[in-house]
């Protein structure tokens, strides 16, 4: 058994795609699956980028907004889950800050 405590000291800063105030810690990396804890600081944003595979973002704490491409923003809060299809461009932002678990699945064995 391993207990993982995603704390500020263990999270790595991410600035890709123009992201601001984003930190991450990988929980699982496998050939077709990735599970990552993401923290968006108050006023932060995960910059617009295409999903590498089918992606689900489960908000575990806080609140924010998400959108697909240049579409409208949608409010999300703890307990909500958002799904994007592989290749779908998307952005997440938060005025108050949020923590989420991103689950990415690719290469369904085609």
Helix- and strand-based class?
Answer: mainly beta
Low-confidence stretches: none
Biggest beta-sheet profile: 8 strands, antiparallel
Shape: globular
Q: How confident is the prediction overall: mean pLDDT?
A: 93
Number of strands: 8
Strand content: over 45%
Task: Name the helix and strand elements from N-terminus to C-terminus, one letter apiece.
Answer: EEEEEEEE
The level of helicity is under 10%
Number of helices: 0
**Structural Rg:** 13 Å
| C-alpha termini separation | 33 Å
Domain Cupin type-2: 38-102
Protein name: Cupin type-2 domain-containing protein
Organism: Actinoplanes ianthinogenes
InterPro entries: Cupin_2 (IPR013096), RmlC-like_jellyroll (IPR014710), RmlC_Cupin_sf (IPR011051)
Describe the structure.
With 110 residues, the chain is an all-beta fold. It contains no helices and eight strands. The protein has strands spanning 12-14, 20-29, 33-50, 54-68, 74-77, 81-84, 89-94, 98-105. The mean pLDDT is 93. This is Cupin type-2 domain-containing protein. Residues 38-102 form the Cupin type-2 domain.
